[in-house]
Design brief:
279 residues, mainly alpha, 0% strand
Amino acid sequence: MLPTSAVRVWICWGLIAAGLAAGWWAHADTMSRFERVLGELDVEIPEFTRPPLPWMHAVAGGAAALLLGAAAATRRGRALLAPRPDPCERSTHGFLYLAATSGFLVLHGACLLAINAGALSGDWWLLPGALFLVFVFCFWRLRGARTPLREWGWTRGRGVLVELALGALVAIALRPLWHVFPLGLSGLGTPYLVYGILGAPILEQTLCRGLLYRDVRDRAGWIVAVVASAAVFALLHQPAARWPWLFVIGAVYGLLRHWRGSLLAPVGAHAAGNAMALL
């Protein structure tokens, strides 16, 4: 006998919590061992120091805010910035998306535990690969039905370039404000730069503002969906010191998703934000 709908939802959220907890434990254990080794070598661990905000970022943030304000002052700009409803009012496959989200987060936690134990290499492609398998699963289960991409939020909105640029402008305008939070993303190699600017925005936004947002919004409304997707987005990342900042960022991405009715705006904001943090 299959469990009831409410029980299945709670099971999925339990799996989500377990996957996130496994990822947190793997990272905490790795950092603990790293600090222990440094202590045995009598190496002093440097404290985090926040670098000054680059003047170009400050100028770009002010210019982006002025540009958005100027656009809102014109009739054409107000029409462009007007909220756009989600073209898919309600999905009939919501639980499948929640199950796929929980499946990925369990794979995510298992991969991190295996990497921490030395059973897998720490190559950057492992976790995106796991998420790709989840997407393939969704398409396989929905074969013959309407493509889920539209339900996830992959729509043109008011134009691909318009939505991406609007999201990027929002991220740039908020850059001086976000500087008060620790980033710790600079100094990474080229593969991580490419993944951080191109891969991560697409994959993480599809997971949090696509699959998860769709199910929670249909069940509890868009406000709860914004909060829940922001919380999962924050807890996906380490270290824990960045969780408050990432929750705020995730909430901004969720509001963009609701405002524009498309994933393109949060993807553009995520890509622009990561580019400013990484470069």
